[in-house]
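Form 7-S
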Amino acid sequence: MTKSFYYIFTMKIFDEILQTLTDFSIKDVRVGKNWTVVESKNCGFGLNFPETYPMFTRFTGELIGKSAKEIAQFSKSWNPTEASIGVAAINSLIDPVGEKINGLDYVEEIAQDKEIVFIGHFPRLDKIKNRAKSLKIIEKVPKEGDYPDTASEFLIPRADITVISGSVFVNKTYKRLLELSKNCYTILLGPSVIMSDVLFEYGVDALAGSTVLNPTKVLIAVSQGAHLKDFSKYLQYIIRFREKR
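Output:
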């Protein structure tokens, strides 16, 4: 595969999103154990994978003051730490708009008698499982009862609803997962979801992300290794739909 072919068909989504955004300078960057946060116009998240991949980046110690659009190019990196910074930089330039609904509450609302596939682990799935016809979880590192990521090719096309973690923009699995989900109702879910209407053109039906209510608290929490549950009280969960409900 040539570089140009790879770029056009795998990475163009980032450029399409960035073309819709106005640039701002970066005010702060925090790369924590679990999350990355970039602050420019707003605070934006990227999911981090430090236990699996090395934490090294270009411009270490020099990111503050740089163009957020320039650092957003890190989203194309195969270094997951860099990619998480890049995705967070994109998110920092977006003004998230949507209905004030927790994405998991919405999935529970529409789950009745549906076959649901989750890409990634999320909390509070028992209530959804009780309403759904079936609920399957696909993970790169499966726990007991999970399915390996190779099962995506078989399970997703049979699903009614696919719920995909925002981490897919860091690990670059979004392209194939969205292709497999073309006949499903597809929800991107999590604080690192890129809340851009561009994604609706790729078959996404709902973007379930968040806005940051207290940037200072979130920056401190992430830099101290916080999990989502530790700073979720500083977020407002929202959903943006492709079609009005």
